[in-house]
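Q: What would this chain look like folded?
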Amino acid sequence: MKGLTGFNNGERRPSGGPLVTGSEVGPQGGASCVITTDSEKSLVSRQASHVQQIELRTYVFLDSLQPQLAAYMGTASQGFLPIPGDACLWMEVSPGMAVHRVTDIALKASNVRLGQMVVERAFGSLALYHRDQSTVLHSGDVVLDAIGSSVSRRTKPEVSWTEVIRSITPDHAVLINRQNRRGSMIQSGMSMFILETEPAGYVLMAANEAEKASNITVVDVKGVGAFGRLTLAGREGDVEEAAAAAMRSIDYINRQ
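A: My prediction, written as structure tokens:
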């Protein structure tokens, strides 16, 4: 028929008209290609644009989860449980729903395990675990490349509050224990170190380094939400040493 070009599957178009979506064209050279309409191209472009618009708020790599922190994170985990000694990568992104895309990219990049994923309106957080540090770091690198970001572009932590309270009273200890049921209990007479950061996830680094440095009790670690909160307890000297290690970890992140 004049004015028509041949298509596979019996599809046709008038000469000079728009190509049909998904039609396979056989050019003279014998090679075949799939034609995509402008609407499909714009959809792909929009999806790529959305990924590039993801903001990296927190990127925290823990080389070896300490026993108390690993146990605490396990109480809140809805996925695979962390084991002491595991490497852990904690990421927080904005907007919150973008955490699903980030999680998908990370899990397909390596055989890391997903321990936790929290989706809030403004922020989304996830925790990845594996015994091999390089496996965890590889997934992190793939995510950073996909969203067009880098560790240096993460939001720097700000310390909103920090304090050491010595020889805590019995009434105070009881109320803290009633409010924080996932960690260990604080006892009267102990000293207490509290730390609040923004973004929230940086308290995980502070908690892990504090536990490495001193013999303390992990009472509470909140790494999601607008602010992160850490509560540690123990003998006065141990708490002061742990507090110093926690603050050094925050300073280290800010210098990177």
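Residues 1-47 have pLDDT under 50 and may be disordered.
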